[in-house]
Amino acid sequence: MDDLQNYKLQLQQVEAALTTDPSNEELLKLKIDLEEVIELTHDLIKSQQQEKRQANGMDAKDPILLAVLANKWKVGDQCMAPWSEDGKYYEATIDAISEDGVVNITFNEYKNTDVTMLSQLKSVAKRPASDWADQKSKKNASRCSSRLRS
Protein backbone atom coordinates (compact mmCIF):
# COMPACT_ATOMS: atom_id res chain seq x y z
CA MET A 1 0.00 0.00 0.00
CA ASP A 2 2.88 2.32 0.71
CA ASP A 3 4.03 1.71 -2.87
CA LEU A 4 0.78 3.17 -4.20
CA GLN A 5 1.20 6.28 -2.04
CA ASN A 6 4.83 6.62 -3.19
CA TYR A 7 3.77 6.41 -6.84
CA LYS A 8 1.14 9.08 -6.27
CA LEU A 9 3.66 11.32 -4.54
CA GLN A 10 6.14 10.82 -7.39
CA LEU A 11 3.40 11.71 -9.88
CA GLN A 12 2.68 14.93 -7.99
CA GLN A 13 6.38 15.81 -8.08
CA VAL A 14 6.58 15.13 -11.83
CA GLU A 15 3.45 17.23 -12.43
CA ALA A 16 4.97 20.06 -10.40
CA ALA A 17 8.17 19.85 -12.46
CA LEU A 18 6.10 19.92 -15.66
CA THR A 19 4.60 23.27 -14.66
CA THR A 20 8.05 24.85 -15.06
CA ASP A 21 9.05 22.77 -18.10
CA PRO A 22 5.86 21.55 -19.85
CA SER A 23 7.65 20.32 -22.99
CA ASN A 24 10.22 18.13 -21.21
CA GLU A 25 9.82 14.79 -22.97
CA GLU A 26 11.43 12.77 -20.18
CA LEU A 27 9.01 14.20 -17.61
CA LEU A 28 6.03 13.65 -19.93
CA LYS A 29 7.04 10.01 -20.42
CA LEU A 30 7.59 9.57 -16.68
CA LYS A 31 4.14 11.03 -15.99
CA ILE A 32 2.49 8.55 -18.37
CA ASP A 33 4.47 5.65 -16.86
CA LEU A 34 3.53 6.63 -13.29
CA GLU A 35 -0.15 6.96 -14.19
CA GLU A 36 -0.03 3.47 -15.67
CA VAL A 37 1.78 2.04 -12.62
CA ILE A 38 -0.80 3.64 -10.30
CA GLU A 39 -3.66 2.18 -12.31
CA LEU A 40 -2.07 -1.29 -12.40
CA THR A 41 -1.33 -1.18 -8.66
CA HIS A 42 -4.93 -0.20 -7.92
CA ASP A 43 -6.17 -3.06 -10.12
CA LEU A 44 -3.85 -5.49 -8.33
CA ILE A 45 -5.16 -4.38 -4.94
CA LYS A 46 -8.76 -4.80 -6.13
CA SER A 47 -7.94 -8.26 -7.45
CA GLN A 48 -6.32 -9.29 -4.17
CA GLN A 49 -9.31 -7.99 -2.22
CA GLN A 50 -11.71 -9.90 -4.46
CA GLU A 51 -9.74 -13.12 -3.99
CA LYS A 52 -9.86 -12.56 -0.24
CA ARG A 53 -13.65 -12.03 -0.37
CA GLN A 54 -14.19 -15.17 -2.43
CA ALA A 55 -12.07 -17.16 0.01
CA ASN A 56 -14.32 -15.87 2.81
CA GLY A 57 -17.45 -16.79 0.83
CA MET A 58 -18.58 -13.16 0.44
CA ASP A 59 -19.57 -11.61 -2.85
CA ALA A 60 -19.02 -7.89 -2.36
CA LYS A 61 -20.21 -7.28 -5.94
CA ASP A 62 -23.72 -8.18 -4.77
CA PRO A 63 -25.64 -4.95 -5.47
CA ILE A 64 -27.85 -5.35 -2.40
CA LEU A 65 -24.86 -5.82 -0.10
CA LEU A 66 -23.08 -2.85 -1.68
CA ALA A 67 -26.17 -0.64 -1.29
CA VAL A 68 -26.56 -1.53 2.38
CA LEU A 69 -22.87 -0.97 3.12
CA ALA A 70 -22.71 2.26 1.09
CA ASN A 71 -25.57 3.67 3.15
CA LYS A 72 -23.80 2.76 6.38
CA TRP A 73 -20.43 4.36 5.58
CA LYS A 74 -19.39 7.72 4.14
CA VAL A 75 -16.14 9.59 3.52
CA GLY A 76 -14.75 10.97 6.79
CA ASP A 77 -16.30 8.25 8.97
CA GLN A 78 -14.20 6.61 11.67
CA CYS A 79 -14.06 2.83 11.47
CA MET A 80 -12.03 -0.23 12.32
CA ALA A 81 -10.29 -1.54 9.20
CA PRO A 82 -7.88 -4.39 8.53
CA TRP A 83 -4.31 -3.44 7.70
CA SER A 84 -3.17 -5.44 4.67
CA GLU A 85 0.24 -6.14 6.24
CA ASP A 86 -1.02 -8.11 9.25
CA GLY A 87 -4.81 -8.50 8.82
CA LYS A 88 -5.44 -6.92 12.24
CA TYR A 89 -8.04 -4.20 12.72
CA TYR A 90 -7.05 -0.64 13.63
CA GLU A 91 -8.90 2.66 13.92
CA ALA A 92 -9.03 4.42 10.56
CA THR A 93 -10.71 7.24 8.66
CA ILE A 94 -12.46 6.64 5.33
CA ASP A 95 -10.86 8.74 2.56
CA ALA A 96 -12.79 7.51 -0.49
CA ILE A 97 -15.40 4.92 -1.45
CA SER A 98 -15.71 3.66 -5.02
CA GLU A 99 -18.87 2.30 -6.63
CA ASP A 100 -17.53 -1.26 -6.51
CA GLY A 101 -17.05 -1.16 -2.73
CA VAL A 102 -13.31 -0.45 -2.63
CA VAL A 103 -12.45 1.90 0.25
CA ASN A 104 -9.35 4.05 0.68
CA ILE A 105 -8.52 4.53 4.34
CA THR A 106 -5.92 6.22 6.52
CA PHE A 107 -5.03 4.60 9.82
CA ASN A 108 -5.34 7.17 12.59
CA GLU A 109 -2.31 6.32 14.71
CA TYR A 110 0.54 6.24 12.16
CA LYS A 111 -1.23 7.83 9.13
CA ASN A 112 -0.56 4.76 6.94
CA THR A 113 -2.92 4.46 3.99
CA ASP A 114 -4.46 1.28 2.68
CA VAL A 115 -7.26 -0.05 0.51
CA THR A 116 -9.94 -2.45 1.72
CA MET A 117 -13.55 -3.36 1.00
CA LEU A 118 -16.73 -1.90 2.53
CA SER A 119 -17.63 -5.39 3.69
CA GLN A 120 -14.49 -5.54 5.85
CA LEU A 121 -15.12 -2.34 7.82
CA LYS A 122 -16.30 -2.51 11.43
CA SER A 123 -17.71 0.13 13.73
CA VAL A 124 -15.29 1.71 16.17
CA ALA A 125 -15.68 0.05 19.55
CA LYS A 126 -16.94 2.48 22.14
CA ARG A 127 -14.97 2.68 25.36
CA PRO A 128 -16.94 1.98 28.52
CA ALA A 129 -17.77 5.07 30.58
CA SER A 130 -15.65 3.67 33.41
CA ASP A 131 -12.53 3.94 31.17
CA TRP A 132 -13.20 7.63 30.60
CA ALA A 133 -13.81 8.20 34.32
CA ASP A 134 -10.54 6.41 35.21
CA GLN A 135 -8.61 8.45 32.65
CA LYS A 136 -10.14 11.72 33.94
CA SER A 137 -9.38 10.89 37.56
CA LYS A 138 -5.75 10.09 36.66
CA LYS A 139 -5.39 13.47 34.92
CA ASN A 140 -6.90 15.27 37.90
CA ALA A 141 -4.63 13.39 40.30
CA SER A 142 -1.52 14.32 38.29
CA ARG A 143 -2.60 17.98 38.26
CA CYS A 144 -3.08 17.97 42.02
CA SER A 145 0.29 16.32 42.66
CA SER A 146 2.09 18.79 40.39
CA ARG A 147 0.44 21.70 42.24
CA LEU A 148 1.55 20.23 45.55
CA ARG A 149 5.16 20.01 44.32
CA SER A 150 5.18 23.72 43.32
UniProtKB/TrEMBL annotation:
Residues 138-150 have a biased composition (Basic residues). The keyword Mitochondrion does not apply. GO terms for molecular function: RNA binding. GO terms for cellular component: Cajal body; cytoplasm. Residues 126-150 are annotated as: Disordered. Keywords: mRNA processing, mRNA splicing, Nucleus. It is found in: Nucleus, Cajal body. It comes from the Eukaryota. Residues 72-131 form the Tudor domain. GO terms for biological process: mRNA processing; RNA splicing. Its main location: nucleus. PANTHER family: ZINC FINGER CCCH-TYPE WITH G PATCH DOMAIN-CONTAINING PROTEIN. Belongs to the SMN family. This is Survival of motor neuron-related-splicing factor 30.
